[in-house]
Amino acid sequence: MVFRWAKEGEAGGARGMKLYDSSRAPNPRRVRIFLAEKGISVPTVQVDLGKLEHKSDDFTRLNPRQRVPVLVLDDGTVICETIAICRFFEALQPEPNLFGATPTEQGLVEMWQRRVELDLLYPIMMVLRHLNPGMAAMEVPQVPEWGEANKPKVLAALDFFNDALAGREFLAGDRFTVADITLLVAVDFMRVIRVALSPTHENLARWHAAVSARPSAKA
User: Fold this and answer.
1) In Å, how far are 42, 119, 172, 175, 205 from 115, measured between CA atoms?
2) Looking at residue 15, what is its pLDDT?
3) Which pTM does this prediction carry?
């Protein structure tokens, strides 16, 4: 099977390949940053979550879990889940490497990436989905107590990652990886629950300023 995708600056994109995206959601942004780091361009289809387009019959046929992002390949194969999509593109275009080159690097990147997902990004989502009235149609049922229970988890995670970044430039090693992408998106997404870094998070703030300056962060 032949895949073709456009490098940055080229016209067009992957022939027959589509990425179902949503501009305001955190997980699709992780994929966009990943692709920008790779210099890969893929045609996108915007899914309006506010209008519940992810719950439409057409989208549900693509992903019964009704979540974005979704990648549809030339042959109609559907790949869901953020990291699965990123791994697909990493395998197609190994450099620049974002998942680790050696077994040790790969283990460390996976460890830190997973910690960010579970300890920070997931609690942020739970606060938003269970406490914001505007999310009632998406989170059925809303459980306000669960939203409140996740607020201290967000703050504890910020302390943890701040300590982890003491004396190092990137989260999982000596270079930018998918773990940094997930942490960047999580920290930026805290705005939806009105949480910001505190003055005590100086390591995290230094790291955040540096990775936010990368061109890919604008994706």
Assistant:
1) 28, 6, 11, 18, 18
2) 54
3) 0.92
